[in-house]
Amino acid sequence: MRGLLLFATLGLAAAEDGLNAWLRYARLPPDIAKQATVPLNIVALNTTETSPVYVAGQELQKGIKGILDRSLNITHEASEGSSVVVGTIAAFNNSGISIGTPELEQDGFWLSIKGDTVEIVGQNERGALYGAFEYLSMLAQANFTEVAYATNPSAAIRWINQWDNMDGTIERGYAGPSIFFKGNAPVSNVTRVAEYARLLASIRVNGIVINNVNANAQILSDANMAGIARIADAMRPWGVKVGISLNFASPQTFGGLNTFDPLDKSVIAWWTKITDKLYQHVPDLAGFLVKANSEGQPGPLTYGRTLSDGANLFAKAAKPHGGIVMFRAFVYDNQHLNERNWKDDRANAAVDFFRGLDEKFDDNVVVQVKYGPIDFQVREPPSPLFAHLKQTASAIELQVTQEYLGQQCHLVYLPPLWKTILDFDLRVDGEKSVIGTDILSGKRFNKKGLTGYAAVVNVGQNATWLGSHLAMSNLYGYGRLAWDPTVNEVEILEDWTRLTFGLDDTVRETITRMSMESWPAYENYTGNLGIQTLTDITGPHYGPNPQSMDNNAWGQWTRADAFSIGMDRTVKNGTGFAGQYPTEVAAVFEEIETTPDDLLLWFHHVPYTHVLKNGKTVIQHFYDAHYAGAETAATFPTQWAKLEGLIDKQRFDETAFRLTYQAGHAIVWRDSINQFYNSLSGIADAHDRVNNHPWRVEAESMTLRGYRVTSVNPFEVASGLRIVQTVGNSSSASVSAKLNFTAGTYDVAVAYYDLYEGKASYELFLNDKSIGSWVGDNEYKLGYTVTRGIDGHSATRITFKGVDVKEGDVVRVDAKANGRETAPLDYIAVLPPGVVD
Ligand code: GCU
After folding, report:
1. How far apart are CA 583 and CA 430, in angstroms?
2. I need a labelling partner for 761 at 20 to 30 A (CA). Which of 391, 400, 416, 468 fits?
3. Which residue range or ranges hold the Glycosyl hydrolase family 67 C-terminal domain (predicted)?
């Protein structure tokens, strides 16, 4: 009963599944709500139900009801006085309401709040809707100030890319199946599609490409075009235009021609016809996204044509319809890169391919450039291609889905990473050329109206959209930065937290602190000094596997040997990549002395004993950073625990589970990377932590029943280089050991491997008393790319807190293998308070 009462006073919703993300419109406490001056009516200056202004009216009604518990009527006739009026400039002018708005740019809006009169004036319908969301965002954050201002987007293109396959899977998606496709066709139930469009409109995203860049030509069938139209209809009321990815070989593979040569007349005619047909289905189709001659995809180079020949083929077809072509700069040849050639470098590819083409692209082509020269790594320098596209419009490609950044199982707040790129001044021709405010805004090279942002998001059917509640700050942050790249990343977080979890100070401070610590921590425990995320490059891109980076043609090399590490990208002695930057920037990266430590190994090959600007050697920095990163991650579950009761139980529990998992996996990362470089370099950790774990009992040294000792691949993901697995598919096996720790209260952690296809079960005992039990079923809970191997992806830790242990106690794990899972165990750690190991 007491619990119930407390619940009621705090006004917490019983369960929240995350579906409404930052648009929950949670009721404000009455004492706060009563300070708001609320208009009596809503006037939406459009009567067409599918228009964004009409939708804005309804959203205002819903939001004000939710936040302030006031029921407002909606009318469509102009009235002054106590009302919130939303409409376009043109509608305001027609209605006779006098407005003194400054000049607005496309999608911009004017917001004026004065007493109980609110005016939301959009340059267009979309802008008006954005203004309505802005007003609601203020109310939801209990910000009742009077304002009068105009805001305009930094760039015209603010798009999402979804890498959804037509069979309903999502490439690099970690939140369940597609909301757009099912069974090789666009979905017929578009409820989630419309809900997604609502979220996107609220962060001012105006376009979305719904299918994978590795595109299936079948999307161009008549039935599928009708399906795309259905999706476009669901998103249009929210001002979000739909675009599609094209497969370059479609004329041949789908159209039945014997060529897809972009200069062939029949190919040109084919694309023109297909494009015309698409625009009959979707008259406002945003345009096309094209991945060509990249990672095995077909493209113009197949016929000895240029990339601009390829892009212009689509541009000419789309031009009469007002469509644009986003042509990806992610062009490289993963067949012929040769690590033995010191000068070979995948990072050079984009500029090498596009350098001579700047004047060749049609004016409705936008080159879409990943933020760094390689591929969404934990740290990269900005792509130098932004400095070479002067005649051609460019857009930056960011990644909200955390492909190399923990796949939403690790909290990694990305705006600070993106800001290292957006705030970077490329100094093109010796002049200020900041990527966000000068280049992507279109100002520097006079491309206004055709530049901007694309983010690979990959939401899925999971109620949380991305698989994790906290990961949604990245989607929210993306929208905020695309609108205004100068907005502060902490401010973004604080707004997002208030909207997502309410106004409590502790909640806001905790989530802000953890989020701001998260990217540096992840960089620390995965790959630092610019060496990239040291993950499994040929596999899931998730857990540690440093050796997979080298000796293949993917070109994400570290060139690590027994003595030295890093890519020499200098002009004087290396791949020449540094020279792709404008002179002033090139000079900085050319020299070790001027290259910042965090990009050292990106640009230079140095001995492990090289001394950094921070006074440490490279190898000691590796060790220390990995320890520091895992220690930060270890604080996350503890910080989060303080929020119990301050937020709803469902989101509290789901997040607690992920943060606890992350803390364990951060230790997997730390130990694997440190063990690997320690073994490669033979240089000991100055603090004697690497391979020295006084609080661990290795499974291979325990008394085994129904278990056998094995090694694993890669070797470094096993503490002590060995693990144990059940013999055959034993249904009853155990490991046990006598503990030699002095009496006290410890946290007991068990390191095991949670594989795909199998749910082994485990129970931990101390002197025959059960401490806890668990099942290896993370493949159903976490969403990262699962493997069937005992490796850095499946390595997992579970921790039982506050266990009283005496010297001589016997610790035991009973296990039952299941399916493929041979209940693999690595070690048991008995940790005194404060020890992270
Ligand atoms: C990465 C990613 C692929 C994707 C590719 C791209 O390499 O792993 O899944 O297709 O980028 O951006 O085209």
Report:
1. 8
2. 468
3. 467-689
